[in-house]
């Protein structure tokens, strides 16, 4: 009987080293029993060479193990009872192109019946521990072929309100997960605005923090952001009885996004056309930078203490909370963007 081992291997040596050599060369290894007869139960086949396949086939194999082509959202579950605060957790859902919602992660079976849950996808996260090469290949699919949706609103958050990591969903839980934001290639931001002072102020600060995290490695040649697609959807609350003034008093909170650069595909919805066109141009890196608006200072008198009548003079900016900090009019005219006739009202000094 011819030997089933490749040339250079001792047929009488059944040590792990010889069998490992056969595995690495893609051969089938057989061993004999105590009587010298072939034992078919001891035969095994070498590991399949996954990385010898084209990337398209590898990614198709990954589709059975990790989510692909979904819009991934994060829902925060907060128990109503204060003593359950330690049980805070995030639930990840995936929205497919046909609109169906799939729960991602967790146990895919019901505990009591053992029946598999409907519309549930178990993420095989152990793939990230196989090897560094395998992890990078899987991450390129998980973070590169899905759209990650984040919601930024102006309501108060605990324990940090302005620079809250909760705007990143489950990715904001630790510094390690937060660093994965640079690997995202498709991001959708849902801006839920409200037209009062503190809501606009919180939203502006949170978007500044969002951009700061995305640009954290912008100057590092080895760790630049991979973001290619940015979708921004602007909505108001409440959605009934909205007036154009309501949108105008909230839309300039988005100015923080203007510091992003070099994103190939940018799309804004829910905003005036002239403002959307300007934001798209500047984020794509076209049309130059937007100049800062030089708001004049105004003198105000305030009490030094609550219980006395002593007044102290302070010089504060004349810009109101709903007015822009950037000169969008000059940027629009420089790049040929049509602007409304009453655009100067946004920079009018209000006494």
Question: How would you summarize this macromolecular structure in one to three sentences?
Answer:
The protein has 351 residues and is an alpha/beta fold. It is 21% helix and 21% strand. The chain has a domain of 47 residues.
Question: What layout of secondary structure does this protein have?
Answer:
Elements: H1 16-24, E1 28-32, E2 38-45, H2 55-62, E3 71-77, E4 89-95, E5 101-104, E6 120-121, H3 132-142, E7 147-153, H4 175-178, E8 186-193, H5 197-214, E9 229-236, H6 244-248, E10 265-269, H7 273-284, E11 297-303, E12 311-317, H8 328-334
Parallel strand pairs: 3-7, 5-6, 7-8, 8-9, 9-10
Antiparallel strand pairs: 1-2, 3-4, 4-5, 11-12
The proportion of residues in beta strands is 15-25%
- How many helical elements? 8
Separation, N- and C-terminal Cα atoms: 101 Å
**What overall form do the CA principal axes indicate?**
elongated
Can you write the helix and strand succession as a string?
HEEHEEEEHEHEHEHEHEEH
Q: Output the strand order for the largest sheet.
A: 6-5-4-3-7-8-9-10
Oligomer: single chain
Derived from helix and strand composition plus strand pairing, the structural class reads: alpha/beta
* Helix share bin: 10-25%
Given as residue ranges, the uncertain stretches (5+ residues, pLDDT < 50) are 1-28
Radius of gyration: 29 Å
Please describe the biggest sheet, giving its number of strands, its sense, and whether it closes into a barrel: 8 strands, mixed
- Round the mean pLDDT to the nearest integer and report it: 80
Biased composition (Polar residues): 14-35
Protein name: F-box domain-containing protein
InterPro entries: AN11006-like
Region (Disordered): 1-37
């Amino acid at each position: 009987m011819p030997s089933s081992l490749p040339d250079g291997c001792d047929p009488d040596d059944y040590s792990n080293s010889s069998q490992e050599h056969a595995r690495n060369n893609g051969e089938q290894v057989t061993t004999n029993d105590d009587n010298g007869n072939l034992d078919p139960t001891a035969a095994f086949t070498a590991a399949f060479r996954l990385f010898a396949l084209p990337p398209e086939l590898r990614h198709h194999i990954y589709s059975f193990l990790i989510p692909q082509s979904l819009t991934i959202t994060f829902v925060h579950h907060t128990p109503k009872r204060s003593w359950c605060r330690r049980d805070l957790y995030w639930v990840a859902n995936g929205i497919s192109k046909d609109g169906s919602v799939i729960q991602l992660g967790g146990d895919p079976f019901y505990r009591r019946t053992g029946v598999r849950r409907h519309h549930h996808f178990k993420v095989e996260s152990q793939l990230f521990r196989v090897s560094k090469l395998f992890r990078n290949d899987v991450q390129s699919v998980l973070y590169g072929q899905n759209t990650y949706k984040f919601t930024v609103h102006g309501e108060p958050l605990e324990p940090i309100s302005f620079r809250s990591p909760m705007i990143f969903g489950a990715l904001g839980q630790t510094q390690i997960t937060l660093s994965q934001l640079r690997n995202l290639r498709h991001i959708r931001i849902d801006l839920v605005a409200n037209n009062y002072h503190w809501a606009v102020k919180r939203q502006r600060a949170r978007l500044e923090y969002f951009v700061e995290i995305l640009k954290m490695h912008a100057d590092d040649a080895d760790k630049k952001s991979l973001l290619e697609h940015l979708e921004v959807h602007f909505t108001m609350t409440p959605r009934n009885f909205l007036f154009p003034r309501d949108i105008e008093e909230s839309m300039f909170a988005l100015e923080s996004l203007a510091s992003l650069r070099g994103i190939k595909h940018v799309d804004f919805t829910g905003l005036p056309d002239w403002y959307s066109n300007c934001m798209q141009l500047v984020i794509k890196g076209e049309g130059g930078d937007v100049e800062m608006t030089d708001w004049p200072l105004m003198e105000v008198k305030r009490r030094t203490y609550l219980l006395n009548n002593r007044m102290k003079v302070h010089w504060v900016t004349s810009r109101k909370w709903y007015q822009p900090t950037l000169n969008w009019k000059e940027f629009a005219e420089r790049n040929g963007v049509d602007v409304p006739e009453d655009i100067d009202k946004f920079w009018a000094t209000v006494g």
